[in-house]
Protein backbone atom coordinates (compact mmCIF):
# COMPACT_ATOMS: atom_id res chain seq x y z
CA UNK A 1 0.00 0.00 0.00
CA UNK A 2 2.77 2.40 0.98
CA UNK A 3 4.83 1.35 -2.06
CA UNK A 4 1.86 2.01 -4.38
CA UNK A 5 1.32 5.44 -2.82
CA UNK A 6 5.03 6.24 -3.21
CA UNK A 7 5.03 5.21 -6.88
CA UNK A 8 1.89 7.26 -7.49
CA UNK A 9 3.50 10.31 -5.87
CA UNK A 10 6.64 10.00 -7.98
CA UNK A 11 4.57 9.53 -11.13
CA UNK A 12 2.71 12.75 -10.34
CA UNK A 13 5.95 14.61 -9.59
CA UNK A 14 7.66 13.44 -12.80
CA UNK A 15 4.68 14.16 -15.05
CA UNK A 16 4.36 17.57 -13.42
CA UNK A 17 8.06 18.14 -14.11
CA UNK A 18 7.54 17.20 -17.77
CA UNK A 19 4.70 19.72 -18.05
CA UNK A 20 6.84 22.44 -16.50
CA UNK A 21 9.81 21.65 -18.76
CA UNK A 22 7.67 22.15 -21.86
CA UNK A 23 6.56 25.54 -20.57
CA UNK A 24 10.15 26.47 -19.69
CA UNK A 25 11.41 26.22 -23.27
CA UNK A 26 9.66 29.24 -24.87
CA UNK A 27 10.00 31.32 -21.71
CA UNK A 28 13.77 30.78 -21.48
CA UNK A 29 14.18 31.55 -25.18
CA UNK A 30 12.01 34.67 -24.94
CA UNK A 31 13.92 36.05 -21.95
CA UNK A 32 17.22 35.43 -23.70
CA UNK A 33 15.93 37.46 -26.64
CA UNK A 34 14.86 40.27 -24.27
CA UNK A 35 18.46 40.53 -23.05
CA UNK A 36 19.74 40.19 -26.65
CA UNK A 37 21.46 36.87 -25.88
CA UNK A 38 21.70 33.51 -27.63
CA UNK A 39 18.67 31.24 -26.84
CA UNK A 40 20.93 28.54 -25.41
CA UNK A 41 22.16 31.01 -22.78
CA UNK A 42 18.59 31.17 -21.48
CA UNK A 43 18.00 27.42 -21.80
CA UNK A 44 21.22 26.54 -19.96
CA UNK A 45 20.25 28.96 -17.18
CA UNK A 46 16.82 27.35 -16.87
CA UNK A 47 18.37 23.86 -16.64
CA UNK A 48 21.17 24.66 -14.17
CA UNK A 49 19.25 27.04 -11.89
CA UNK A 50 16.19 24.80 -11.88
CA UNK A 51 18.26 21.73 -11.00
CA UNK A 52 20.36 23.28 -8.21
CA UNK A 53 17.51 25.13 -6.50
CA UNK A 54 15.33 22.01 -6.66
CA UNK A 55 18.04 19.97 -4.91
CA UNK A 56 19.30 22.49 -2.36
CA UNK A 57 16.53 25.12 -2.15
CA UNK A 58 14.26 25.85 0.77
CA UNK A 59 10.97 25.56 -1.11
CA UNK A 60 10.26 22.14 -2.71
CA UNK A 61 7.90 22.51 -5.65
CA UNK A 62 9.10 25.99 -6.60
CA UNK A 63 10.57 26.27 -10.11
CA UNK A 64 13.47 28.59 -10.92
CA UNK A 65 15.10 29.57 -14.19
CA UNK A 66 15.78 32.49 -16.51
CA UNK A 67 13.23 35.25 -15.81
CA UNK A 68 11.97 38.40 -17.45
CA UNK A 69 12.64 40.59 -14.40
CA UNK A 70 16.38 39.91 -14.63
CA UNK A 71 16.40 39.97 -18.44
CA UNK A 72 15.02 43.52 -18.43
CA UNK A 73 17.78 44.73 -16.09
CA UNK A 74 20.40 43.12 -18.33
CA UNK A 75 18.83 44.55 -21.48
CA UNK A 76 18.96 48.09 -20.07
CA UNK A 77 22.62 47.66 -19.12
CA UNK A 78 23.64 46.24 -22.52
CA UNK A 79 21.72 48.97 -24.35
CA UNK A 80 23.57 51.72 -22.50
CA UNK A 81 26.93 49.88 -22.24
CA UNK A 82 27.20 47.33 -25.10
CA UNK A 83 30.68 46.24 -23.97
CA UNK A 84 29.22 45.03 -20.65
CA UNK A 85 27.73 42.03 -22.49
CA UNK A 86 31.23 40.54 -22.64
CA UNK A 87 31.20 40.34 -18.85
CA UNK A 88 27.72 38.83 -18.44
CA UNK A 89 28.92 35.62 -16.83
CA UNK A 90 31.19 37.24 -14.21
CA UNK A 91 28.26 39.55 -13.40
CA UNK A 92 26.00 36.52 -12.84
CA UNK A 93 28.64 34.96 -10.56
CA UNK A 94 28.93 38.14 -8.47
CA UNK A 95 25.14 38.30 -8.32
CA UNK A 96 25.13 34.76 -6.91
CA UNK A 97 27.75 35.66 -4.30
CA UNK A 98 25.57 38.54 -3.08
CA UNK A 99 22.61 36.16 -2.74
CA UNK A 100 24.65 33.58 -0.83
CA UNK A 101 25.82 36.32 1.55
CA UNK A 102 22.20 37.43 2.02
CA UNK A 103 21.23 33.90 3.03
CA UNK A 104 24.25 33.36 5.30
CA UNK A 105 23.39 36.59 7.14
CA UNK A 106 19.88 35.15 7.61
CA UNK A 107 18.20 38.15 6.05
CA UNK A 108 15.50 36.05 4.42
CA UNK A 109 13.26 36.83 7.38
CA UNK A 110 12.94 40.36 5.99
CA UNK A 111 10.32 39.00 3.61
CA UNK A 112 8.02 38.83 6.64
CA UNK A 113 8.03 42.63 6.70
CA UNK A 114 6.17 42.70 3.40
CA UNK A 115 2.53 43.63 4.17
CA UNK A 116 -0.37 41.60 2.83
CA UNK A 117 -1.60 44.43 0.52
CA UNK A 118 1.85 44.43 -1.13
CA UNK A 119 1.51 40.66 -1.68
CA UNK A 120 -1.90 41.18 -3.28
CA UNK A 121 -0.50 43.86 -5.57
CA UNK A 122 2.56 41.75 -6.39
CA UNK A 123 0.49 38.72 -7.39
CA UNK A 124 -2.00 40.73 -9.43
CA UNK A 125 0.71 42.77 -11.15
CA UNK A 126 2.71 39.67 -12.00
CA UNK A 127 -0.40 37.97 -13.41
CA UNK A 128 -0.96 40.97 -15.68
CA UNK A 129 2.72 40.95 -16.74
CA UNK A 130 2.51 37.23 -17.61
CA UNK A 131 -0.70 37.90 -19.54
CA UNK A 132 0.86 40.77 -21.50
CA UNK A 133 3.99 38.76 -22.26
CA UNK A 134 1.96 36.15 -24.15
CA UNK A 135 0.91 38.61 -26.85
CA UNK A 136 4.37 38.61 -28.38
CA UNK A 137 3.54 35.07 -29.51
CA UNK A 138 0.88 36.49 -31.83
CA UNK A 139 3.49 38.55 -33.69
CA UNK A 140 6.17 37.90 -36.28
CA UNK A 141 9.52 38.03 -34.47
CA UNK A 142 11.43 39.81 -37.26
CA UNK A 143 8.90 42.57 -38.01
CA UNK A 144 6.84 42.86 -34.84
CA UNK A 145 3.64 42.74 -36.91
CA UNK A 146 0.72 40.47 -36.09
CA UNK A 147 0.54 37.07 -37.76
CA UNK A 148 -1.79 36.60 -40.76
CA UNK A 149 -5.49 36.41 -39.93
CA UNK A 150 -5.73 32.66 -40.70
CA UNK A 151 -2.88 31.86 -38.29
CA UNK A 152 -4.40 34.03 -35.59
CA UNK A 153 -7.70 32.17 -35.90
CA UNK A 154 -5.93 28.81 -35.62
CA UNK A 155 -3.96 30.01 -32.60
CA UNK A 156 -7.12 31.26 -30.96
CA UNK A 157 -8.87 27.93 -31.51
CA UNK A 158 -5.92 25.97 -30.11
CA UNK A 159 -5.72 28.24 -27.05
CA UNK A 160 -9.42 27.65 -26.35
CA UNK A 161 -8.93 23.87 -26.69
CA UNK A 162 -6.01 24.00 -24.22
CA UNK A 163 -7.96 26.04 -21.69
CA UNK A 164 -11.00 23.74 -21.96
CA UNK A 165 -8.87 20.61 -21.45
CA UNK A 166 -7.16 22.12 -18.38
CA UNK A 167 -10.54 23.12 -16.98
CA UNK A 168 -12.44 19.88 -17.70
CA UNK A 169 -9.85 17.06 -17.43
CA UNK A 170 -9.36 17.25 -13.62
CA UNK A 171 -13.09 16.52 -13.24
CA UNK A 172 -12.63 13.29 -15.20
CA UNK A 173 -9.20 12.05 -14.08
CA UNK A 174 -6.07 13.17 -12.27
CA UNK A 175 -3.83 10.49 -13.74
CA UNK A 176 -2.20 13.01 -16.09
CA UNK A 177 -1.48 16.71 -15.42
CA UNK A 178 -4.10 18.63 -17.45
CA UNK A 179 -1.56 21.09 -18.85
CA UNK A 180 0.57 18.22 -20.20
CA UNK A 181 -2.47 16.54 -21.73
CA UNK A 182 -3.49 19.81 -23.36
CA UNK A 183 -0.04 20.33 -24.89
CA UNK A 184 0.07 16.76 -26.25
CA UNK A 185 -3.45 16.91 -27.70
CA UNK A 186 -2.97 20.25 -29.46
CA UNK A 187 0.44 19.18 -30.80
CA UNK A 188 -1.12 16.02 -32.28
CA UNK A 189 -3.95 18.08 -33.79
CA UNK A 190 -1.47 20.41 -35.49
CA UNK A 191 0.63 17.50 -36.83
CA UNK A 192 -2.35 15.36 -37.94
CA UNK A 193 -4.22 18.18 -39.68
CA UNK A 194 -1.00 19.88 -40.85
CA UNK A 195 -2.19 23.22 -39.52
CA UNK A 196 -0.26 26.34 -40.43
CA UNK A 197 0.53 27.72 -37.01
CA UNK A 198 3.53 29.10 -35.14
CA UNK A 199 5.61 26.44 -33.38
CA UNK A 200 8.48 26.48 -30.88
CA UNK A 201 10.84 25.80 -33.78
CA UNK A 202 9.68 28.99 -35.47
CA UNK A 203 10.76 30.99 -32.42
CA UNK A 204 14.28 29.54 -32.17
CA UNK A 205 16.19 26.29 -32.27
CA UNK A 206 16.49 24.51 -28.93
CA UNK A 207 19.18 22.14 -30.16
CA UNK A 208 22.48 22.15 -28.29
CA UNK A 209 24.96 20.11 -26.30
CA UNK A 210 25.70 19.68 -22.62
CA UNK A 211 26.79 23.00 -21.08
CA UNK A 212 30.58 23.17 -20.77
CA UNK A 213 32.26 25.00 -17.85
CA UNK A 214 34.54 27.88 -18.74
CA UNK A 215 36.21 30.79 -16.99
CA UNK A 216 34.29 34.02 -17.55
CA UNK A 217 35.94 37.08 -19.05
CA UNK A 218 37.26 39.42 -16.33
CA UNK A 219 36.96 43.25 -16.60
CA UNK A 220 40.32 44.96 -17.05
CA UNK A 221 39.45 48.36 -15.57
CA UNK A 222 37.90 49.63 -12.35
CA UNK A 223 35.11 51.54 -14.12
CA UNK A 224 33.77 48.33 -15.67
CA UNK A 225 34.23 46.49 -12.36
CA UNK A 226 32.10 49.14 -10.66
CA UNK A 227 29.39 48.94 -13.32
CA UNK A 228 29.30 45.15 -13.25
CA UNK A 229 29.23 44.99 -9.44
CA UNK A 230 26.46 47.59 -9.18
CA UNK A 231 24.33 45.77 -11.74
CA UNK A 232 25.02 42.43 -10.04
CA UNK A 233 23.72 43.88 -6.76
CA UNK A 234 20.54 45.07 -8.52
CA UNK A 235 20.10 41.65 -10.14
CA UNK A 236 20.65 39.91 -6.80
CA UNK A 237 18.04 42.13 -5.14
CA UNK A 238 15.46 41.69 -7.88
CA UNK A 239 16.07 37.93 -8.00
CA UNK A 240 15.74 37.49 -4.25
CA UNK A 241 12.61 39.62 -4.00
CA UNK A 242 10.91 37.68 -6.78
CA UNK A 243 12.09 34.34 -5.35
CA UNK A 244 11.12 35.00 -1.75
CA UNK A 245 7.74 36.46 -2.66
CA UNK A 246 7.05 33.48 -4.91
CA UNK A 247 8.08 31.26 -1.99
CA UNK A 248 5.59 33.06 0.25
CA UNK A 249 2.84 32.71 -2.36
CA UNK A 250 3.44 28.96 -2.69
CA UNK A 251 3.49 28.66 1.11
CA UNK A 252 0.01 30.17 1.17
CA UNK A 253 -1.29 28.01 -1.67
CA UNK A 254 0.08 24.73 -0.26
CA UNK A 255 -0.41 25.51 3.46
CA UNK A 256 3.26 24.69 4.08
CA UNK A 257 6.31 26.76 4.96
CA UNK A 258 9.53 27.11 3.01
CA UNK A 259 12.93 28.23 4.31
CA UNK A 260 13.80 31.65 2.93
CA UNK A 261 17.46 31.73 3.98
CA UNK A 262 18.12 28.27 2.57
CA UNK A 263 16.43 29.32 -0.67
CA UNK A 264 18.56 32.48 -0.86
CA UNK A 265 21.76 30.44 -0.54
CA UNK A 266 20.55 27.93 -3.14
CA UNK A 267 19.60 30.73 -5.57
CA UNK A 268 23.06 32.24 -5.11
CA UNK A 269 24.84 28.92 -5.58
CA UNK A 270 22.78 28.26 -8.70
CA UNK A 271 23.72 31.62 -10.22
CA UNK A 272 27.43 31.15 -9.44
CA UNK A 273 27.43 27.78 -11.21
CA UNK A 274 25.28 29.13 -14.04
CA UNK A 275 27.81 31.87 -14.67
CA UNK A 276 30.57 29.25 -14.88
CA UNK A 277 28.56 27.18 -17.38
CA UNK A 278 27.46 30.01 -19.68
CA UNK A 279 23.95 30.72 -18.39
CA UNK A 280 22.30 34.14 -18.05
CA UNK A 281 21.28 33.79 -14.41
CA UNK A 282 17.79 33.67 -12.99
CA UNK A 283 15.47 33.26 -10.03
CA UNK A 284 12.09 31.76 -9.12
CA UNK A 285 9.47 31.72 -11.87
CA UNK A 286 5.98 32.29 -10.57
CA UNK A 287 4.24 31.09 -13.74
CA UNK A 288 6.07 27.77 -13.96
CA UNK A 289 5.87 27.34 -10.18
CA UNK A 290 2.09 27.68 -10.34
CA UNK A 291 1.93 25.18 -13.23
CA UNK A 292 3.92 22.75 -11.07
CA UNK A 293 1.73 23.24 -8.01
CA UNK A 294 -1.50 22.94 -10.01
CA UNK A 295 -0.16 19.78 -11.71
CA UNK A 296 0.50 18.15 -8.32
CA UNK A 297 4.21 18.89 -7.97
CA UNK A 298 5.01 19.41 -4.31
CA UNK A 299 8.43 17.82 -3.82
CA UNK A 300 11.96 18.20 -5.09
CA UNK A 301 11.44 15.46 -7.67
CA UNK A 302 9.21 17.69 -9.81
CA UNK A 303 11.81 20.46 -10.13
CA UNK A 304 14.66 18.01 -10.68
CA UNK A 305 12.75 16.12 -13.37
CA UNK A 306 11.75 19.38 -15.06
CA UNK A 307 15.41 20.37 -15.34
CA UNK A 308 16.50 16.96 -16.62
CA UNK A 309 13.69 16.86 -19.17
CA UNK A 310 14.74 20.32 -20.34
CA UNK A 311 18.33 19.15 -20.78
CA UNK A 312 17.16 16.09 -22.71
CA UNK A 313 15.16 18.36 -25.02
CA UNK A 314 18.27 20.43 -25.70
CA UNK A 315 20.52 17.43 -26.38
CA UNK A 316 18.22 14.76 -27.82
CA UNK A 317 14.63 15.91 -28.37
CA UNK A 318 14.84 19.31 -29.99
CA UNK A 319 13.15 18.12 -33.21
CA UNK A 320 10.12 16.92 -31.23
CA UNK A 321 9.86 19.94 -28.96
CA UNK A 322 10.14 22.32 -31.90
CA UNK A 323 6.85 20.89 -33.28
CA UNK A 324 4.85 22.02 -30.23
CA UNK A 325 2.50 24.85 -31.23
CA UNK A 326 3.19 28.08 -29.40
CA UNK A 327 -0.57 28.45 -28.94
CA UNK A 328 -0.67 25.45 -26.59
CA UNK A 329 1.92 27.04 -24.31
CA UNK A 330 0.12 30.40 -24.47
CA UNK A 331 -3.09 28.64 -23.42
CA UNK A 332 -1.31 27.07 -20.44
CA UNK A 333 0.05 30.47 -19.39
CA UNK A 334 -3.41 32.05 -19.74
CA UNK A 335 -4.71 29.47 -17.26
CA UNK A 336 -1.77 30.28 -14.99
CA UNK A 337 -2.80 33.94 -15.13
CA UNK A 338 -6.38 33.05 -14.17
CA UNK A 339 -5.13 30.91 -11.28
CA UNK A 340 -2.54 33.44 -10.11
CA UNK A 341 -4.62 36.61 -10.09
CA UNK A 342 -6.23 37.27 -6.72
CA UNK A 343 -9.83 37.69 -7.89
CA UNK A 344 -10.80 38.18 -4.27
CA UNK A 345 -9.18 41.61 -4.56
CA UNK A 346 -12.35 43.10 -6.05
CA UNK A 347 -14.32 42.15 -2.92
CA UNK A 348 -11.50 42.97 -0.53
CA UNK A 349 -11.07 46.51 -1.89
CA UNK A 350 -14.54 47.41 -0.61
CA UNK A 351 -13.87 46.15 2.92
CA UNK A 352 -10.28 47.14 3.75
CA UNK A 353 -8.99 50.62 4.73
CA UNK A 354 -8.48 53.00 1.82
CA UNK A 355 -4.74 53.09 2.51
CA UNK A 356 -4.46 49.30 2.02
CA UNK A 357 -6.54 49.51 -1.16
CA UNK A 358 -4.19 52.22 -2.41
CA UNK A 359 -1.16 50.01 -1.73
CA UNK A 360 -2.69 47.11 -3.68
CA UNK A 361 -3.45 49.32 -6.68
CA UNK A 362 -0.09 51.12 -6.63
CA UNK A 363 1.94 47.92 -6.36
CA UNK A 364 -0.09 46.32 -9.16
CA UNK A 365 0.40 49.30 -11.48
CA UNK A 366 4.09 49.78 -10.67
CA UNK A 367 4.75 46.06 -11.21
CA UNK A 368 3.23 46.32 -14.68
CA UNK A 369 4.90 49.60 -15.63
CA UNK A 370 8.37 49.08 -14.12
CA UNK A 371 9.46 45.93 -12.32
CA UNK A 372 8.76 43.85 -9.26
CA UNK A 373 11.56 45.16 -7.05
CA UNK A 374 10.53 48.79 -7.49
CA UNK A 375 6.87 47.88 -6.89
CA UNK A 376 7.64 46.05 -3.65
CA UNK A 377 9.81 48.88 -2.32
CA UNK A 378 7.13 51.44 -3.20
CA UNK A 379 4.46 49.33 -1.50
CA UNK A 380 6.51 48.86 1.67
CA UNK A 381 7.32 52.58 1.85
CA UNK A 382 3.66 53.57 1.45
CA UNK A 383 2.59 51.01 4.05
CA UNK A 384 5.26 52.21 6.47
CA UNK A 385 4.26 55.85 6.04
CA UNK A 386 0.59 55.01 6.56
CA UNK A 387 1.44 53.02 9.69
CA UNK A 388 3.56 55.90 11.03
CA UNK A 389 0.79 58.39 10.33
CA UNK A 390 -1.88 56.28 12.01
CA UNK A 391 0.35 55.53 15.00
CA UNK A 392 1.17 59.22 15.38
CA UNK A 393 -2.53 60.05 15.73
CA UNK A 394 -2.98 57.64 18.65
CA UNK A 395 -0.88 59.58 21.16
CA UNK A 396 -2.80 61.22 23.98
CA UNK A 397 -2.68 62.34 27.61
CA UNK A 398 -4.81 62.55 30.77
CA UNK A 399 -3.98 65.21 33.36
CA UNK A 400 -4.90 65.55 37.04
CA UNK A 401 -3.71 67.17 40.27
CA UNK A 402 -1.79 64.84 42.60
CA UNK A 403 -2.29 64.71 46.38
CA UNK A 404 0.89 66.74 46.86
CA UNK A 405 -0.54 69.51 44.66
CA UNK A 406 1.63 68.79 41.63
CA UNK A 407 0.23 68.40 38.10
CA UNK A 408 0.60 64.95 36.50
CA UNK A 409 0.24 63.98 32.86
CA UNK A 410 -0.41 60.28 32.07
CA UNK A 411 0.79 59.63 28.52
CA UNK A 412 -0.36 56.86 26.19
CA UNK A 413 0.82 56.01 22.70
CA UNK A 414 4.09 55.91 20.76
CA UNK A 415 6.51 58.83 20.72
CA UNK A 416 8.65 58.81 17.57
CA UNK A 417 9.50 61.05 14.63
CA UNK A 418 5.94 61.16 13.28
CA UNK A 419 4.25 61.92 16.62
CA UNK A 420 6.63 64.47 18.17
CA UNK A 421 4.60 67.47 16.98
CA UNK A 422 1.43 66.05 18.53
CA UNK A 423 3.43 65.17 21.68
CA UNK A 424 4.58 68.77 22.18
CA UNK A 425 1.01 70.07 21.89
CA UNK A 426 -0.22 67.89 24.76
CA UNK A 427 1.25 70.09 27.50
CA UNK A 428 0.09 73.39 28.96
CA UNK A 429 2.93 75.77 29.95
CA UNK A 430 0.59 78.33 31.54
CA UNK A 431 -0.42 76.14 34.50
CA UNK A 432 0.09 77.50 38.02
CA UNK A 433 1.61 74.33 39.51
CA UNK A 434 5.38 74.51 40.05
CA UNK A 435 6.04 70.78 39.78
CA UNK A 436 5.06 68.74 36.75
CA UNK A 437 5.08 64.92 36.53
CA UNK A 438 4.91 63.04 33.22
CA UNK A 439 4.10 59.34 33.53
CA UNK A 440 5.35 57.18 30.63
CA UNK A 441 3.84 53.93 31.96
CA UNK A 442 1.48 53.60 28.96
CA UNK A 443 3.77 55.27 26.43
CA UNK A 444 6.85 54.17 24.49
CA UNK A 445 9.82 56.29 23.41
CA UNK A 446 11.23 54.90 20.16
CA UNK A 447 13.84 57.13 18.58
CA UNK A 448 16.15 60.14 18.76
CA UNK A 449 13.35 62.47 17.63
CA UNK A 450 11.42 61.45 20.75
CA UNK A 451 14.48 62.09 22.95
CA UNK A 452 14.85 65.55 21.42
CA UNK A 453 11.17 66.22 22.19
CA UNK A 454 11.70 65.27 25.83
CA UNK A 455 14.72 67.55 25.92
CA UNK A 456 12.65 70.37 24.42
CA UNK A 457 9.98 69.77 27.06
CA UNK A 458 12.44 69.99 29.93
CA UNK A 459 13.95 73.20 28.53
CA UNK A 460 10.52 74.78 28.13
CA UNK A 461 9.46 74.03 31.70
CA UNK A 462 12.87 75.08 33.00
CA UNK A 463 12.61 78.43 31.21
CA UNK A 464 9.37 79.26 33.05
CA UNK A 465 10.64 78.11 36.44
CA UNK A 466 8.83 74.76 36.57
CA UNK A 467 10.38 71.50 37.82
CA UNK A 468 9.78 68.47 35.60
CA UNK A 469 9.80 64.83 36.72
CA UNK A 470 9.63 61.76 34.42
CA UNK A 471 8.02 58.54 35.67
CA UNK A 472 7.93 54.92 34.53
CA UNK A 473 10.36 55.20 31.68
CA UNK A 474 10.66 51.90 29.79
CA UNK A 475 13.96 50.06 29.51
CA UNK A 476 14.22 51.13 25.87
CA UNK A 477 13.74 54.75 26.82
CA UNK A 478 16.33 54.57 29.58
CA UNK A 479 18.75 53.07 27.10
CA UNK A 480 18.08 55.88 24.64
CA UNK A 481 18.57 58.47 27.37
CA UNK A 482 21.88 56.85 28.31
CA UNK A 483 22.96 56.86 24.69
CA UNK A 484 22.08 60.55 24.53
CA UNK A 485 24.14 61.43 27.62
CA UNK A 486 26.00 64.69 27.10
CA UNK A 487 23.44 65.82 24.51
CA UNK A 488 20.48 66.38 26.85
CA UNK A 489 19.87 66.72 30.55
CA UNK A 490 16.64 65.52 32.13
CA UNK A 491 15.31 65.14 35.67
CA UNK A 492 14.06 61.58 36.17
CA UNK A 493 12.24 60.60 39.37
CA UNK A 494 13.30 57.27 40.81
CA UNK A 495 10.48 54.75 40.62
CA UNK A 496 10.71 52.12 43.39
CA UNK A 497 8.54 49.66 41.45
CA UNK A 498 10.28 49.69 38.08
CA UNK A 499 13.78 50.72 39.16
CA UNK A 500 14.35 52.69 35.99
CA UNK A 501 16.36 55.67 37.24
CA UNK A 502 19.71 56.04 38.91
CA UNK A 503 22.19 58.74 39.81
CA UNK A 504 23.58 58.72 36.29
CA UNK A 505 20.21 59.76 34.85
CA UNK A 506 19.17 62.21 37.57
Characteristic terms for this protein:
Transcription Regulator spoIIAA, STAS_dom_sf, 4-stranded mixed sheet, membrane, single chain, 6 strands, alpha/beta, two-stranded antiparallel ribbon, 2 domains, 506 residues, elongated, disordered C terminus
Summarize the structure in words.
The chain has 506 residues and is α/β, with parallel strands linked by helices. It has two domains: 2-147 and 198-344, no CATH class; 396-483, STAS domain (Transcription Regulator spoIIAA, 2-Layer Sandwich). Helix content is 61%, strand content 7%. The chain has helices spanning 2-34, 39-56, 68-80, 88-104, 116-133, 149-172, 178-193, 200-203, 222-254, 260-276, 286-294, 300-315, 318-321, 326-340, 345-351, 354-369, 372-392, 420-424, 448-463, 475-483, and strands spanning 64-65, 283-284, 396-401, 407-415, 435-445, 467-471. The strands form two sheets. The protein has a four-stranded mixed β-sheet with strand order 3-4-5-6. The relative contact order is 0.15. Residues 495-506 have low confidence and may be disordered.
What topology emerges from the helices and strands here?
Blueprint (H helix, E strand, L loop, with lengths): L1 H33 L4 H18 L7 E2 L2 H13 L7 H17 L11 H18 L15 H24 L5 H16 L6 H4 L18 H33 L5 H17 L6 E2 L1 H9 L5 H16 L2 H4 L4 H15 L4 H7 L2 H16 L2 H21 L3 E6 L5 E9 L4 H5 L10 E11 L2 H16 L3 E5 L3 H9 L23
Parallel strand pairs: 4-5, 5-6
Antiparallel strand pairs: 1-2, 3-4
Helix pairs in contact: 1-2, 1-3, 1-11, 1-12, 2-10, 2-12, 3-9, 4-9, 4-10, 5-14, 5-16, 5-17, 6-7, 6-14, 9-10, 9-11, 11-14, 16-17
Amino acid sequence: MIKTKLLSDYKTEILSGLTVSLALVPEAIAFAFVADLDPLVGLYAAFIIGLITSIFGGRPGMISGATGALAVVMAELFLEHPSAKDYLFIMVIIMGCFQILFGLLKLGKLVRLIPEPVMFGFVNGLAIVIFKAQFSSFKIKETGEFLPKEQLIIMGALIIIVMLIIQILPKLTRAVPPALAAIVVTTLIVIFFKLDTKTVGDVASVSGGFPIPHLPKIPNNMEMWGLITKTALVLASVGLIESLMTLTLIDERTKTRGKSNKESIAQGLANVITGLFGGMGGCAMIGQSMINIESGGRKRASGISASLFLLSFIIFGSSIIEQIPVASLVGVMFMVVIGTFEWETFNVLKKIPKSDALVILVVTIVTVLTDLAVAVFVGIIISALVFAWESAKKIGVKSFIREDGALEYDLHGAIFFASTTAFKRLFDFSVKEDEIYIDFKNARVFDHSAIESINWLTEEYKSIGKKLHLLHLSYDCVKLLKNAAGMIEVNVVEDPEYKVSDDELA
